[in-house]
Amino acid sequence: MTQMRAMMLDRPxxxxxxxxxxxxxxxxxxxxxxxxxxxxxxxxxxxxDGELPxxxxxxxxxxxxxxxxxxxxxxxxxxxxxxxxxxxWLGWTCGICPYCRSGRENLCxxxxxxxxxxxxxxxTHMLADARFAFPLPDNVDAAEAxxxxxxxxxxxxxxRMAGEGTTLGLYGFGAAAHILAQVAAWQGxxxxxxxxxGDVASQNFARSLGAVWAGGSEEMPPxxxxxxxxxxxxxxxxxxxxxxxxxxxxxxxxxxxxxxxxSFPYRLLWEERQLVSVANLTRHDGRExxxxxxxxxxxxxxxxxxxxxxxxxxxxxxxxxxxxxxVLIP
Length: 330
Ligand SMILES: [Zn+2]
Ligand SMILES: [Zn+2]
Fold this sequence. Notes:
Elements: E1 3-8, E2 17-22, E3 30-40, H1 42-48, E4 65-72, E5 84-87, E6 90-92, E7 112-113, E8 125-129, E9 134-135, H2 142-145, H3 151-161, E10 167-171, H4 175-186, E11 190-195, H5 200-208, E12 213-216, E13 225-230, H6 237-244, E14 245-253, E15 274-277, H7 283-296, E16 302-306, H8 310-319, E17 325-329
Parallel strand pairs: 10-11, 10-13, 11-12, 13-14, 14-15, 16-17
Antiparallel strand pairs: 1-2, 3-4, 3-8, 3-17, 4-5, 5-9, 6-7
């Protein structure tokens, strides 16, 4: 086989188009990956909707990739040929800026992001920098592992940022919350799940994954929370979440994009409540989470779509037509 297929975005607000092109050879330091599965993330919608600045165009979206190494660029010794790997959002960092040199490569001054500023995994093949491909075990289902690469990793970074409290609110019960609810329940924490008002299906889904309570996002939980993570890209949730946390509580915004946050009275922030955001991930986050995930016994609920149905998968994500995560299978 010399040709590959990819779903490409030519410019924002357009449907993705299926294209064939020659399979590329990996440059020095890169690996060619034959893709087994690629998760569909809300960030892909932000790229397609033109809500993130300066994407590479045209771009192949997708940053939750599971595949096998099909060719090695010059100088690459790890991963090995035919090894199974996962490729996340963080696709390349400079290694020399103050953030890279202080263990905060998630904030690198000149990074490349998979499926945004370098081509991603809505395809049969892709190139990745070998240093940013995580080894994955052979004994997991590729589609079920794919959402761990973003919803899991950035979710994990948000989860750690939320601190050690026993009561945790999750606003927006999509792929990331569905993973973290299981981690939190495994650690003995009490999870409160907040969904769109009246979304009984998502609320039942949250309870089935260990949430002790589930309700609409404007409701107050039955007890004050130690912390809350907001995954839904809805700025109006910030004052709601601040009102739901106790003194010293922390709100973590886990998404890359959010609608404007409405003004709110200072008393909601008073008493040392904190409001922070989480950006991207470090490779350390990735290694740590991929070690935790099997121990926590995370079960992924995935809806599979053929690669060429990517536009349908994105529309279903936007409309909330499935629980858990959508995954493209080339
Ligand atoms: Zn850097
Ligand atoms: Zn993502």
